[in-house]
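Bug report (template v2)

What were you trying to do?
Predict the complex of my protein with magnesium ion.

What happened?
Run completed; filing so the output is reviewed.

Input:
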Amino acid sequence: MMNDFTRLMLDHCPEMLFLVNPVSLKIEIANATAVKILGYDAEELLGFTITEVESALPDVFYWDEVRNGQYLEVEDQESQYRRRNGDLLDVRKSIQLVEHGGVSMLFVRTVTTQSEHIAQDALASTLSQLRATLESTSNGILVIDWRGKIDSMNRLFGKMWAIPEDYMYWQDDAKIMEFLALNVQESELFRDRLRAIVDTSETLDLLHHIDGRVFEMSSRPQYLAVQIIGRVFGFQDVTLHIQAELALREARDRLEEGVLARTADLYAVNETLKQEKESQATLIKKLEETQNQLLQSERMASIGQLAAGVAHEINNPVGFVNSNLGSLQRYVTDLLHLLSTYEQTEESMAGPVLQAIRQVKEDIDIVFLRTDVTQLLAESLDGIKRVTRIVQDLKSFSHVDEAELQWADLEAGLESTLRVVWNELKYKAEVVKEFAGIVRIECFPFQLNQVFMNLLINASHALETRGTITVRTGQDETQVWVEVADTGKGIPRHVLPRIFDPFFTTKPVGQGTGLGLSLSYAIVQKHHGRIDVQSEVGKGSTFRVTLPIRESGAPAAGAPQMA
Ligand SMILES: Nc1ncnc2c1ncn2[C@@H]1O[C@H](COP(=O)(O)OP(=O)(O)OP(=O)(O)O)[C@@H](O)[C@H]1O
Ligand SMILES: [Mg+2]
C-alpha cells in the first residue's frame, strides 16, 4: 500500500499522523512520532479506535457524528490525548477528509502543546520574578523604550518622585518626564539624559531635588541581542549618605582648622623664640663689643700709665741735664772768653813756652774746637728741649682716666697727637695742616686725642706710596669738626659698612686689631658727636669727626654717614 520512502517520511514528520476509518473509527495507520509520544506499541495502536486516544468529551461527540456520516473537517483544535501510562497530553489537531480509490478516510495531524505551555509558564515565572525584583530593590527604576516612551517603572520610583496620581492614571509620558525634570535643579541635564536613549554609554549623575533630597541617577542601555531597545534609569536617594559625608567633611575641616590654628600657635611661639634668640644674639654681640672696647680702653690706659711712668722717670734726668747743659753753655762761654784773654798775652811769652802752647793748640785744633763746642752745646740744648716736649706730650696723652669734662683746644690736641705719631708718618706722608682756629670745646681732650691718633695711623696705613694727609678743622655756631683726609687706597663699597665693627680689619694678622675705629666711634658717641666717612677706591678717604661745642644739652649722635 505504501512504499518504504513514504513510510520514512511519515515516521520523521514531527506531527503525530493518523489515518482513521470513518465507519469503524479504527486507526488504520499511525506514524512513529505518534507511537513514540503516546507510548503504545505500533500493533497495539493499530487495534485502537481513535476515541480510545482522543477521550475529551467534545472529541467523543465529534467522532460519533463522523460515524453517523458527518465528516467535518477540523483546523487546529485543542484537545487531549491519552497516553499509555494514563497521562493526558495537551495537543492541537487538524482533521481532513481524504479519498482514495472510492474510499473515504480521515487524516488526523496532531501536535503536542505541552512544551509551549512550559515555555509560557517559564516566561510568566521569569516575568513575575523580574517584577518582584523590580519592586524589592531599594532603587527607583524607570525604563524608557527606544521611542522615548515610558515602558515601565517600579512603585518606589513613583513614590520617591511623588508623581501625581492623574499623570500615572493617564500614563501621560511627556507630562511625567517634564514633572521629573522640573523637580530637580539639574533640569536641563535630566532632560538630556531622558532624551539620549539610543546611546551605548552608561551615565552616573547627582540630581538635587528641589525639596532638598539628593538622588543618584544611573542609566544604562537595554539591549535585545545587539540592538538597543531602550534605557533603564536607576534612582537612589543618597541624601543621608551625602549629609553624612558633608558632616564628615565638616568635621574633617574643623579638625584641619584646629590643626592649622595649633600650627599657627606653634609657629608664633617659634617666632617669638627666634626673636628672643636674635635679641639675645644682639645682646651678646653688644656685650662683646662693650667688652672689647673696655679691653681696648684698658689697653690704652695701661699703655698710658706706662708712658706716664716712663715720662715721669725721664722727666727728672732730662730736667737736670737740661739745666746742667744751660750752665755748661754759660761756663764754656766764660772759659772761651778767658782763653781769648790769655791769648792776648802770648806775644810776651818766652819762646819755649809759646812753642809748647802752639803745639797743644795745633794738636787740639783750637780753631775748630772753638766754633764746634758752642754748636754742640746749642744742638744738645735743642735736643734736650725736644726730649722735654715729647715727655710732656706723652704725659698729656697718657692722661686717659681723667673724668672731668674740660674746655680744650682741639687744634693743640691735634698738634700734640701729630708729634706722638710723627715717627709713623714722617716717611710716608706729607702732613698738611689746614686749621681754621676753632673755639675750645667742652670734652675729654685726651680721649679725643686717641680718636685723632687712630685716624692718623689709619690714614698713614692707607698710603701705599708716599702721599698726603690733610688735617682740617672748622666750625659753625654749635659744633666743630676735625677732618683727616688721605690720598690712600680708599675703602671698597662692600667693606664700608663694617669698618666700625669691633675686630673688623683688612690688615694682616698681627698688624691690626680692628678696634681703632670701633673705639673711636664709641668715644665720639660719648661726646654726642658723629663720624662721617667719604671714600673712593684709589683716590683716598676722608674721616670727619663732628662734635658739639657744648656737651650739656647736646643733641644725641646720629649714625655714621658713609659715602
Ligand atoms: N683711611 C683709611 N683708608 C682705607 N681703609 C681704612 C681707613 N681707615 C680704616 N680703614 C679700614 O677699616 C678697617 C678698620 O679700621 P680700624 O682702625 O678699626 O682697625 P685696623 O686699623 O685694621 O686695626 P687697629 O685696631 O690697629 O686700628 C681697616 O682694617 C681698614 O680696612
Ligand atoms: Mg686702625
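What did the reviewer find?
The pocket of magnesium ion (ligand 2) is lined by residues 454, 457-458, 512, 516 (CB under 6 Å). The chain has a mean pLDDT of 87.
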